[in-house]
Design goal:
242 residues; mainly alpha; three-stranded antiparallel sheet; 7 helices; ArsR-like_HTH; WH_DNA-bd_sf; WH-like_DNA-bd_sf; Helix-turn-helix domain-containing protein
């Protein structure tokens, strides 16, 4: 890279911002003698413009007398462009451009540097590498507050009975939801022994509450049976007359 050419390229008026960028990029790749040979694609990648746009602006720079282009044969028979920056005596954007019949070949650069001379360039063909971009992580949405069934205890149920019921539902994998709590509160509303209803369901491993199965006056959850009650001992009263 020639710092002198870079400064001159920045001060040179070319009449187009993209053309100015191409000229600066050529100066960035040039030796102190103003010689470089970057590919169209390399300049396009560096300037972030199309390859055809680079070709067009280099032709304009040549017409303005700021760049001289020569073709050179490659080792495999392919030809590449050799650029000579002539910023020491630029034509300028208002000067008459080089006509179509002109070869576009200007004076040889200082020092007798020609196509056969030893060339030094800081330009290398670009190596395509994946560009890693850091994507800002989207702010995580606030998690919904986890519902605590203990805060939804029916008014006529004791705290201990309700805590036992919540624990029971959690252990059997049927956690209480807010909707379920509200429905069960309506089920127990006005019942004479709501704690007994809950204790009955816990004892039997039920997931629901069945207040109709608890007899009036029950405290531990005595259930109503359709068949005979084998716990009934009133038959013993009849033995006294024997």
């Amino acid at each position: 890279m020639s710092m002198e050419l870079m400064v001159k390229a920045m001060k040179t008026k070319v009449g187009n911002p993209l053309r100015k960028l191409v000229l600066i990029k050529l100066a960035d790749n040039a030796s102190d003698q103003g010689e470089c040979w970057p590919s169209y694609q390399h300049i396009a990648d560096q300037c972030e413009i199309d390859r055809s746009t680079v070709r067009k602006h280099i032709k304009h720079l040549e017409a303005q007398g700021l760049v001289r282009i020569e073709n050179r044969e490659g080792p495999k028979g392919n030809s590449t462009n050799l650029y000579y920056l002539t910023l020491r005596n630029p034509v300028g954007q208002n000067s008459t451009p080089v006509g179509p019949e002109s070869t576009g070949v200007g004076p040889q650069p200082i020092g007798g540097v020609g196509p056969k001379s030893t060339r030094t360039s800081h330009s290398f063909e670009p190596v395509t590498e994946p560009v890693e971009q850091t994507v800002a992580e989207a702010p995580s949405a606030k998690k919904a507050t986890k519902f605590d069934p203990l805060t939804c205890k029916p008014a006529n149920v004791s705290e201990q009975a309700w805590a036992d019921w919540c624990q029971h539902r959690r252990e059997i994998g049927k956690r209480l939801t807010k909707t379920t709590c509200e429905r069960q509160a309506k089920t127990l509303a006005g019942h004479h022994a709501p704690d007994a209803v809950i204790n009955q369901s816990i004892s039997n491993g039920w997931t629901g509450l069945f207040p109709e199965k608890v007899l009036p006056g029950a405290t531990s959850g005595r259930t109503v049976r359709n068949g005979p009650d084998f716990n009934d001992t009133t038959w013993a009263n009849d033995l006294g007359g024997l």
